[in-house]
Amino acid sequence: MNNPITEQAFLSQYNIHDFDVPLCTVDMTIFTVQDEQLKVLLVKRAQHPAMGQWALPGGFIDLENDTTIDDTAVRKLRQKTGVQTPYLEQVATVGNRLRDPRGWSLTVLYFALISSQGIELANDASSMEVVWMPYTKACDLSLAFDHHQLLEQSYQRLRSKVLYTSLPIHLMPTTFTLPRLQKTYEIILGAPLQKKSFRKRILDANIIEETGDKEPGVTRPAALYRAKAEHGLHVFPRTLEGVNCTP
Amino acid sequence: MNNPITEQAFLSQYNIHDFDVPLCTVDMTIFTVQDEQLKVLLVKRAQHPAMGQWALPGGFIDLENDTTIDDTAVRKLRQKTGVQTPYLEQVATVGNRLRDPRGWSLTVLYFALISSQGIELANDASSMEVVWMPYTKACDLSLAFDHHQLLEQSYQRLRSKVLYTSLPIHLMPTTFTLPRLQKTYEIILGAPLQKKSFRKRILDANIIEETGDKEPGVTRPAALYRAKAEHGLHVFPRTLEGVNCTP
DNA sequence: TGAATAGTGTCTGTGAGACAATATCGT
DNA sequence: ACGATATTGTCTCACAGACACTATTCA
């Protein structure tokens, strides 16, 4: 045995500052659909490094106050949007030597989906500006660090899950119509879907229910639905077909 | 502007040791199929903490030699198995205050799939023993840290992807028969599949090709196949049905 | 020839795609 | 009644499941 001391003794002399450790952060891709467009929340960084550049919101884990890494993500989201309970999903962790000028750095990437209804974007000391940026426009911008690649990864995850899950429900306000939900699918996929099969798919999944009301409008009013309690995420046994090209 | 210094000045005075940072590791779930069983590689830890306990192989990022976090995973895998180019996939990152007695800790969890053919398990200083443990048995053991939960997460990811991808091909030796591949699917899923539809599914996917040889045997010899170059991962448009219970 | 395993023929059911037809609103 | 949008009817096609049938090997 090469380690004759007790675990307690080992722990008492262990000091993480004796080791070279990577920088460790959480980055968020917060998506919403607004004005018939997929948008992503970007901040203009108020501090070094990459000061003045557009970036995904994110930051360090607060070892004092965050019990889990999901807490960090939730906290970041709340700071910018005030939203408490979004759909939140870990996308991937990207770590390498070059992505941050401060040194070997690792970031845990999340995406969140929220309805844009009644959201007030909020600055804090870390950002000069906070905006909903259309996804396509965000792709054209030069983003801080490797955030361009992170954004791309989040979108790919979002898009592929839209093909076989009920994810877009989390982008809707509490009540919504089936045509609006279909439109949301179409915006993310960048391709039209068939009305009939879309309705059947969603209704058969038994994840939404009619409120009984209709959406007022200039033409035939559509039935309003709400997500059933604890709908979480429905996984369909077949993917949407004919939608296999990235737009 | 609250930060009038230049980025260069900022970077020159930045020192990661001024901050509280989490412990940061990589853990591996290395799966193989052997003796008609799904097995996972476990090590008996030779060092504190959790010395003497069974654990998933893993360790710290080597900031000197690992350029990316995938490098760390590949290195860990090679240390234990000698395998160079397995199927490797990031499962999730688990970080919280309690999972490691040394403090706030974060681990990036990977799973790897390898054929058990011609693998020599290798000890190093960090482990007293390295074994292929049947998955069901590993679940019954008490594993170090939260490795029980990590193992469970990896298995769930593996199982769900087996339902709609060609993943198990990466568990096969370079040449294999369709009945063996089907058996591999069945072992992971814990349920039998229909011969006819399984064969059609795989062959239509156009990801394997006949070698022209037959596997010798006491009964009718089966045709040997190999994965086509650059097969990567095929995603089927439908999941396998009737296999929706976890065994 | 018979046991054992490999491989095929064929029917059913389900759900996505296509697209036409009908329903319901405001004006 | 008309334009616009919602909702439904119905046909086709691809593919997973079921299961019986045929093929090929060794002893």
Considering the chains and any ligands shown, give keywords for the structure:
alpha+beta, 10 strands, 6 helices, Arc Repressor Mutant, subunit A, 28% strand, Nucleoside Triphosphate Pyrophosphohydrolase, 2 domains, 26% helix, DNA-binding, 247 residues
Short description:
The structure is a homodimer of 247-residue chains. By secondary structure, chain A is α+β, with helices and mostly antiparallel strands. Helix content of chain A is 26%, strand content 28%.
Mean pLDDT of chain A: 92
- Rg of chain A, rounded, reads 21 Å
Question: Please, how many domains of chain A?
Answer: 2
- Taking the alpha carbons of the first and last residues of chain A, their distance comes to 59 Å
Q: Biggest interface pair, residues each? A: A-B, 49 and 49 residues
Number of helices of chain A: 6
Class of secondary structure makeup of chain A: alpha+beta
What is the succession of H and E elements of chain A? HEEEEHEEEHHEHHEE
Number of strands of chain A: 10
Main sheet specs of chain A: 7 strands, mixed
CATH topology of the largest domain in chain A: Nucleoside Triphosphate Pyrophosphohydrolase
